[in-house]
Amino acid sequence: MVKWLSDHTNMGFTAKLRYAPAGWKYESPTKMSYNKDGYRFIYVLSGDMRIEKSPSNNKEQLAKKDYLIVQKPNSLWHWGSSKFTDQGVMWLDIEYGKGTIIGQSPIIRSFIYSNQ
User: Fold this and answer.
1) Residue 115: inside a domain, yes or no?
2) I want to staple 44 with a disulfide (CB 3.0 to 4.6 A). Which of 13, 51, 67, 111 is the partner?
């Protein structure tokens, strides 16, 4: 299940609330995805999310409530070949890309200001 919170793909930003029921498994276990110029943040709100071992992940992990996954540009995302969750999982899925505009201004890195 996916609930779109913000669909500003044309401006480089999306926010989704996602849910997978207990025992859910992705239909195409070998499919991977990545964003060339964008970041993705996955924040687990409740339940558990299994992160399988992969070339970039040395060991299987179980993400639970308050777990944050940060994907930098060109990071691969793989749903895995076994069940994704044991008890069901709800997470916030945020993606933004290079040149993202929210409101009237692009998202840019903050910097430290010194008046000296």
Assistant:
1) no
2) 67
